[in-house]
Amino acid sequence: MSAQFQTPPSATSPAADLPRLNRQLRPVPKAPVRIVHLGLGAFHRSHQAWYTQQASDSADWGIAAFTGRRPDAAVALAEQDGLYTLVERADGGDSFAVVGSIVEAVDGADLGRLTALVAAPETALVTLTITEAAYGLGADGKLDISAPDVAADLALLGSGSAQPATPLGRLVLALAARRDAGSGPIAVVCCDNLSNNGTVARQGVAGFAKAWDPGFAAWIDGNVSFVSTSVDRITPRTTDEDLAAVREACGYRDNSPVVTEPFSSWVLSGDFPAGRPRWEDAGALFVGDIEPYENRKLWLLNGAHSLLAYAGQLRGHKTVAEALVDPECRRAVEAFWDEAEANLPQAAGLQIPEYRAALAARFSNARIAHNLAQIAMDGSTKLRMRAVPVLKAERAAGRTGAAAALMIAAWMDYSATAASFQDPLAEDVAAANRLEGIERIKALLAVIDPVLAGDASVVRLVEGLCGTEAGYPASL
């Protein structure tokens, strides 16, 4: 179990005089690597790594976590033998725990180590937090092999080079090594915020493999299980103030603490042919049909986050808690929740009224500085999962879908005014924003969903909801 620090000890020494967190200072045993993770970041450490440490068989399940674009997180974590402090930040105060389930922190570009670990027979599963955009799927739900980064990786793989740069290219290369080693079946567990994310991961990986080697794609079909999950734990970026708080409370230096809320949720559906940790010991739920749970989370939590990210920033707010205090933003969120709830099954297990109440309380936790600018990134991908399904369902039911359309309208206005706009389709968005009037609305809708862009009534609805920063959100 992790070491807990509920009452801060005195730590009056200067920071430089405090010891660095490591496994000698906090004797957390190293488990053997049986899990490989792609996308080492704060959320993985607050969620999957935390769940793994809470498992009763955690001594058997070590994680080797690989970074994505940059090696920084791996370098920092390696200095501490993979240990870090998890800070649970509640309204009433902080609690501190040392997490040691990550036993290797590795630069994602170290493909030799990645392939060796995935090929090892002891490795039972690969978990992914590579962001929504990294799966590279087109509007048809299949891998877009014409995308420049995908095409570049396929060319490298075809030439025999072992240096693909995308997460999927690297994973496919590593799975090929497992096939060649005869190490048997393995599970790939997608933990990104995507509807039916196991299928998304399957389409991305299988599409990559098929474009490279159809025979290898057949091996994946018979030997790789793709597990769908719904993940939930608000985890803002760590600040210098958080580093100082850990030093003061715990009496050591930690360069990689993670701050998160006390709440956590993990729902999984799929097969684990080589085994898995007992994540249920920490409250994980294993179900046969995950779709209602993932839609509840994607629409109610993530959808509200996106709505606040765009409308809130247009109204001058910086954090989720700050935006939710704004009566206009709160009204827009409640209206979207009403639309989303109307299209979720009313099964008792979903407990939607209770879930909404819990979300309002979690969003209002002002001690969790969940920055709207961070949530706003990659909007074209996120809105396909968070706004488009609700809007289409509302229209199919004969209702307007105005609250979901408002989220899209706010994104459009934000895309035209933001000082920094990060999106995988930023060039397409910029080109659309050079148009005027209804043509701009059509072009921006086409970036998100071509079907909606072809519906004149939806185009008019979104156009009417677009507004100025001072007046946002527009009246529903």
UniProtKB/TrEMBL annotation:
<dbReference type="InterPro" id="IPR000669">
    <property type="entry name" value="Mannitol_DH"/>
</dbReference>
<dbReference type="InterPro" id="IPR008927">
    <property type="entry name" value="6-PGluconate_DH-like_C_sf"/>
</dbReference>
<keyword id="KW-0520">NAD</keyword>
<dbReference type="InterPro" id="IPR013131">
    <property type="entry name" value="Mannitol_DH_N"/>
</dbReference>
<feature type="domain" description="Mannitol dehydrogenase N-terminal">
    <location>
        <begin position="34"/>
        <end position="280"/>
    </location>
</feature>
<dbReference type="InterPro" id="IPR036291">
    <property type="entry name" value="NAD(P)-bd_dom_sf"/>
</dbReference>
<feature type="region of interest" description="Disordered">
    <location>
        <begin position="1"/>
        <end position="22"/>
    </location>
</feature>
<feature type="compositionally biased region" description="Polar residues">
    <location>
        <begin position="1"/>
        <end position="13"/>
    </location>
</feature>
<protein>
    <recommendedName>
        <fullName>Mannitol-1-phosphate 5-dehydrogenase</fullName>
        <ecNumber>1.1.1.17</ecNumber>
    </recommendedName>
</protein>
<dbReference type="InterPro" id="IPR013328">
    <property type="entry name" value="6PGD_dom2"/>
</dbReference>
<dbReference type="Pfam" id="PF08125">
    <property type="entry name" value="Mannitol_dh_C"/>
</dbReference>
<dbReference type="InterPro" id="IPR023027">
    <property type="entry name" value="Mannitol_DH_CS"/>
</dbReference>
<feature type="domain" description="Mannitol dehydrogenase C-terminal">
    <location>
        <begin position="289"/>
        <end position="449"/>
    </location>
</feature>
<keyword id="KW-0560">Oxidoreductase</keyword>
<dbReference type="Pfam" id="PF01232">
    <property type="entry name" value="Mannitol_dh"/>
</dbReference>
<dbReference type="InterPro" id="IPR013118">
    <property type="entry name" value="Mannitol_DH_C"/>
</dbReference>
<comment type="similarity">
    <text>Belongs to the mannitol dehydrogenase family.</text>
</comment>
<dbReference type="InterPro" id="IPR050988">
    <property type="entry name" value="Mannitol_DH/Oxidoreductase"/>
</dbReference>
